[in-house]
Amino acid sequence: MSAAATPSESAYRPADASPQRRARSRYTVRQWAVRHARFLEQVYMHLANVFLKLHPVWQAVGYRRAELPVKFVEKVVKVFLFDCRMCGHCILSSTGMSCPMNCPKQLRNGPCGGVRADGNCEIEPDMPCVWIEAWRGSRQMAGGNAIHTVQKPVDQSLRETSSWLRVTAQAAAEREANTGQNS
Q1: Residue 159 domain-assigned (yes or no)
Q2: 140 - beta bridge partners?
Q3: Does 15 score more than 70 pLDDT?
Q4: Count of helix runs (H) and strand runs (E) in the chain
Q5: What pTM does this model have?
Q6: CA 48 from chain center: how many Å?
Q7: Which residues neighbour 20 within 8 Å (Cβ) at sequence distance 6 or greater?
Q8: Is residue 102 part of a domain?
Q9: Average pLDDT over residues 63-90
Q10: Could you give the number of structural domains in the chain?
Q11: Residue 125: which domain range?
Q12: How many CB atoms sit inside 10 A of residue 105's CB?
């Protein structure tokens, strides 16, 4: 018999390449974001104000042309911090900086009935329930009661688009409508 190792035994695998280890690191960053929800809420508010001030630039360039570079930056930031799924309907400011799209069932309005006694997900037992994390994060935020707002279903046609630009365009339109009414 040959003493040669099987491919699975001889293949090099870095210690941090296992799916479980990668998943744990994502949970670690997500949990950091929830623990710092108040700080991230303030950063988000400043960013929203900057984007609103840039509305004339977005209009001049064209929101459609600005989509690709803004989406790239948004995706890098949000995937790292929140394990974002780029659903196009970001509600992090309502859910304590915990992205509900990380729920394996993609529940947008609260936890299912299967949350384990340790607070972990029934489908992914090593993952903390997204909604328990959302509640914890929302309690730290100034707008923490927004978690009670019932969310609409996700419009799948907006997947992989920038919610930052969409929110900016909506806020600019509302602002313009309000200034038109006050005149």
Answers
A1: yes
A2: none
A3: no
A4: 7, 0
A5: 0.79
A6: 15
A7: 126
A8: yes
A9: 94
A10: 1
A11: 19-182
A12: 13
